## 1
Amino acid sequence: MQWIEFFIEAITFAVVVLGAWAGLRALENMWDVRRRLAQTEGVAPATAATAAGGQVVRATDVQNPMLRWVQSSSSLSDTKDREKLRRDLSLAGVEHPAAPVWYVIARFGAAIGLPLAFLFAQQLMAKPMTGFGLIVGALALCGLGLVLPRAILDNRINARREELEHEFPDALDLMVVCVEAGLGLEAAFVRVGEEVRESHPRIAETFNRLSEEMRAGRSRTDALRAMADRTSVDAMKSFVALLIQTDTLGTSIGQTLRSYAAEMRQMRFLKAEEKAMRIPVLMTIPLVACILPVIITALLLPPVLDVMRTLAPALKGHHH
């Protein structure tokens, strides 16, 4: 009967959690509608302020009261920690204003939910764990719940950075063609973003946002630097610094892009050559672990059998 009571309590807890989550989502949708209505009513003043020299800034504040309470009650109350987490999420491709708060909720939810699920599963087993093993398992899952979201986030950041590094040289070659065909730099970014949307979605998204920022009134230098900060790719940082320097000195953008594109192709060739040179080293591990023992066994087995056959009569006579 004890496990039945625990099962009922678990179901009640799950229903309460789901109800709270549904209510939270409803409140968030309601606040989003109100915020959009308020922004619609204030379009004219905002346009006037932009025309007077103001900048177009993305909203970074949390509007939902519940999420705002979570933000003020956790480590996100520190502005430095909140901005660092927001930057990491942006590098992973998540730029929603409430993303840091949801990350904290998911992290602590995993830290609490995994041990609860483990304890519930033990109640359903025929021979549940007890004593010290049960405590260690729950604590290990709690630690895993705290570490796993960060590991997933770091993996996503590295994967997105590698995708951008892989896609950027092709987009740069296409940009060289566009600029030499007579397009301006802003029009080249728009054109390249449209052309590579299917084959290179990450770089297309980056270029489209850069174009939107420049159309919104942000200076080319600030928009390029913001793109370099969002991507955190060394090749794109060098590309941005080169464009800013070219724009400052007044030199030819087409010639600069062509030289940098040739350098990027050479860098890609060197990286491919480096990976090819690593293949013999990597092949040594399976060679030593799998093939070499078989060869040694095949070479030594016949002599060992001959020795055993030779010594077998002598051992028998000595025994008698």
Note: Residues 115 and 308 are 58 Å apart (CA to CA).
## 2
Amino acid sequence: MQMRTINLLEADEAATRGSVAVVAQVAPPDLARPTPCARWDLRALLAHMTVQHRGFAAAAAGRGGDPDVWQPVSSFEHPVAAYLAATAEVLSAFAEPGVLDREFVLPEIPRQPSFPGRVAIGFHLVDYVVHGWDVAQTIGVPYTPPDEVVATALPVARAVPDGPFRLDEGAAFAPARTVPAGASALDEILLLLGRDPR
């Protein structure tokens, strides 16, 4: 069966909604569980994911340079509800006409603080393919993003620079791992971004 071709915004929406389906299964006792993101338990990971949605939504509206929109909040009383609300916010922002051609200020990437919308949304897509997997691994539920979403995310993951800076405090990703021959597209993304699919 031939894989359907989708555009970047469709892929990002599908990945984001896929993360919602996983996060909605999180129960309060799960919040203290360790995650594949070594520095974070699940509560901290959800706080990061929530703030990233809010930051990208602000960037789409021309407010990405405001440092306050990127500050993690670890004290959300209801982390799952906060995540779902932030998801609605970012999807609404990305649905605005012309969003792919806007300039996004992303101060968390200091080497180049602004990007065309289509590049920035590609970053968001990869983040939520991977973070959906992170949450699913943490709570032990299946995670199978659509093939066309993974296929859209893979070139972005391949373009993410690797190097010693990935060992720095606060680096977005751990150093890339070796991708074996025959690895699935999802496993390749995970390995390129420092995860161990096993």
Note: Helices lie at 8-23, 42-60, 79-94, 117-139, 147-159, 185-192.
## 3
Amino acid sequence: MPVFSYTAADADTATVRGTITADTPRAARDQLRGQGLRVRKITPYKNQPQSNSPSGLSAGGANEKSQTTVVRARTGFSIGRWFGAASHRSAWATAVHELAMMLDAGLPILECLDTIAAQHRGNFRAAILQVRDDVAGGRSLAEALGRRPDFFDAASVQMVSVGENSGTLDRVLRELADFKRQQMSVRDRVSTALVYPAFLVVFASAAAVFLMTWVLPPLLESLEETSGALPWPTRMVSGFSNLLTQHAFGLCLGAVVVVCGLAISYRSRRGRYFWHRLLLRLPVLGSMAQKQNVARIAMVIATLSRSGVELTRAFELAEASTGSEPFRKALAIATKRISAGGEVADALTSSGVFPPLAVRVFSVGQESGKLDEMLFRLSEDYDRQVAVLSTRLTALIEPVLILVLATGIGFLLVATVLPILEAGNVMSQ
């Protein structure tokens, strides 16, 4: 049986070199991948051993462990651990742009993948190396990407497949890079708008719990001893403080039960549908969520349609790339009706989650043959509206939270100082 020399990387990004027996280079790669190694290079072994070779690599040794020499890399071990928590979607968006740029410059696909892998660490680097090995072994780039759905979404795989079949991979990758950049821009804009309010809520909650459990109890105890009847603000604060200090275990247990119950309900599809539907009905957040989802769906369908993907397949991929369950259900129903010869507008209107403007754009775009162009405009318009809404929401939430915090602090101050002032008035009389 043939023997192959290989260079690979283990889970700790250490360089591994050795030999392995297999029928073909593809079989050798599969064996090494089964051992948790990421193959970088594999070539036929120069000195093929005989059946009685002391190395033990006989014709029947296909299942024997390969002889390896491990060389610990000086760099990349700890760096991969530190930076391995980066978002996979963000890394893929950057990698698509780099891949399109290098292919447009005329570089071979394997060299492009090697360059991208050298710029990343951790799990994403391992995924890129696996894609590189699959392409070197004869698979298409779309097939290689499709073998790692945990890193590369179905829409990206479909667009790459269309680009490879039509011979326009560099152009399709540029469109995919623009698509990913717009997706990340919208997501980052909304996330940034909610970071500051979330920080204020968490900080205020932690500060309130600390004051009610550590600072106020001894002070309230001394006030109860020196004063007779306490004012109602002081009694209210004292009641909350006693509740937190005397029933802390029960409150924590109840909070854990509630959080676990919400998590379990959210993991089910029916539960996610309920919470997502509830989000869409909220006054301001609902409008933001609706327009953000419509913008994402329009962008996916427009990009895929421009790349040559048929409309029903574009709807299926848009459904797979959408996180909102009501929109997923609406797209699934629309896909079935379109496949049966129905109109897009009727299918989307029956769902009740698409706004009238989006339904009208789909209808006019399908009739005029300019669906991708009109969907891109719709996506851009809704992106701008989401940006405006997020800015207004941030501008509204900040003063409201500050006012709530000031009111809470003022109430605690009044509850603490009021008994002291009343005791001073009694003594002065």
Note: Strands lie at 3-9, 15-21, 38-44, 67-71.
## 4
Amino acid sequence: MRLRPRTLLTCALVVVAACGGGGDASSESTSADGAAPQGAPGSAGAVADFTAEDLAAYERGLAREIELVKAAQAASFTASTPEARGAAMQAQFETATMPEGAKVSGLGERYEGIREVVHTTLRTLDMQGKIDGPVSIDTARASAETKARLAKDPMAELPAGAAAALRARLDVIAAQWAEYTRLTAVGG
């Protein structure tokens, strides 16, 4: 059986993503069991407060990241050389898209922290089945720490104002996050 170059590239990306070598959603400051490491921007000890205006800015930034990922994916499909395909694939990584999202959002350096907190919260809600998204977990294989995290309300970990702002926009933000997560999971 002969594999097409695009199939080989996809397989290689799966390996890279599994090893943490990409900037895709699976490498967003989580351990293998899906838990945020202690002290990470998405962990309870490092949560910064954000407002409804901050979330609107985050939405603009993530929309820009989605545009960039889609453009990079289109470029990878039409690239005529391995180098061009590789460059297009790397252009999808969050290390490439996040700075542009931060610029569009107007949040500057705060964008990354807000993004991490929102993504961690949404990932947990998705694993709990409280929102419709692409993340799932086999709780039988999850660590005790992850099981404990999944037993809690991730909104309770947020400052009250931030939780209220996120709840007010949860449907819109969760749909946008799910689109981004699906696009960046092993190159879409």
Note: Confidence is low (pLDDT under 50) at residues 1-47.
